[in-house]
């Protein structure tokens, strides 16, 4: 199955799981509760078939725990930092060896997206940065990412270096600047080449507005 069709199918399955959870949460009788739980189980089995071989049904049950309130998408931040030659700062994570991304990660409870981005940049690269502006808000369903269990929004910031020197950490094996026309192999779960190019174009245009989907 082509990647675009697979992504569309995965999004439908995730919506079904969310609707099943809502049905369980608001079910008025045991019959409805049982049917919604069965529907959720069927969709988890479909998700198990469609997603990465490292994600099994047991892990999916851990991901999609019973809800106690209305479910919402997960939020991820990514930071674009350019040097004086307009090269892109990128990191290689131990969890995805040989693949690179711009710095970032999941948003943490208790921190604003801006605070998370500053924290992630420091932890992953050793640099203290300030946030210049929000460059883009991506919805992963509109992009050619590999199949994923989560429904995710990505907030991409333009960052400016304040202080510090590049260094690796316990979960980052390499930190380096790359030319836009010579990017390394990418961790496509995290970022795509088309997204990096969009962000660089937005960053270099002083009059650009935030891109969103």
Strand content: 15-25%
Alpha-beta classification: alpha/beta
Number of helices: 5
The count of DSSP E runs of length 2 or more, i.e. the number of strands, is 8
| Succession of helices and strands | HHHEEEEHEEEHE
What does this structure look like?
With 213 residues, this protein is of the alpha/beta class. It folds into two domains: 3-63, no CATH class; 74-212, Nucleoside Triphosphate Pyrophosphohydrolase, CATH 3.90.79.10. The chain contains five helices and eight strands. A five-stranded mixed β-sheet has the order 4-1-6-5-8, sandwiched between helices. A hairpin with a 6-residue loop joins strand 2 and strand 3. The protein starts with a helix and ends with a strand.
Sequence-ordered SSE layout with sheet pairings:
Blueprint: H1 3-26, H2 30-50, H3 57-63, E1 74-80, E2 88-93, E3 100-101, E4 104-106, H4 113-125, E5 127-139, E6 152-164, E7 172-178, H5 193-204, E8 211-212
Parallel strand pairs: 1-6, 5-8
Antiparallel strand pairs: 1-4, 2-3, 2-7, 5-6
Helix pairs in contact: 1-2
In short:
The protein has 213 residues and is an alpha/beta fold.
Question: Which terms would index this structure?
Answer:
5 helices, alpha/beta, 8 strands, Nucleoside Triphosphate Pyrophosphohydrolase, three-stranded antiparallel beta sheet, five-stranded mixed beta sheet, 213 residues
């Amino acid at each position: 199955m082509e990647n675009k069709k697979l992504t569309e199918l995965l999004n439908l399955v995730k919506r079904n799981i969310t609707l099943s959870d809502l049905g369980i949460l608001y079910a008025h009788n045991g019959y409805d509760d049982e049917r919604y739980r069965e529907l959720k189980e069927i969709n988890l089995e479909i998700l198990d078939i469609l997603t990465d071989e490292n994600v099994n049904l047991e892990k999916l049950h851990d991901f999609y725990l019973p809800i106690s309130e209305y479910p919402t998408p997960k939020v991820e931040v990514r930071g674009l930092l350019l040097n004086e030659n307009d090269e892109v700062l990128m990191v290689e994570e131990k969890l995805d060896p040989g693949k690179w991304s711009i710095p970032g990660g999941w948003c943490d409870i208790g921190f604003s997206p801006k605070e998370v981005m500053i924290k992630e940049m420091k932890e992953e690269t050793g640099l203290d940065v300030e946030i210049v502006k929000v460059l883009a808000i991506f919805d992963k369903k509109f992009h050619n990412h590999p199949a994923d269990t989560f429904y995710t929004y990505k907030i991409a910031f333009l960052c400016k270096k304040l202080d510090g020197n590049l260094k690796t950490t316990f979960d980052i094996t390499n930190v380096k600047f790359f030319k836009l026309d010579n990017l390394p192999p990418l961790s496509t779960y995290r970022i795509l080449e088309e997204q990096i190019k969009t962000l660089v174009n937005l960053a270099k245009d002083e009059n650009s507005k935030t891109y969103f989907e």
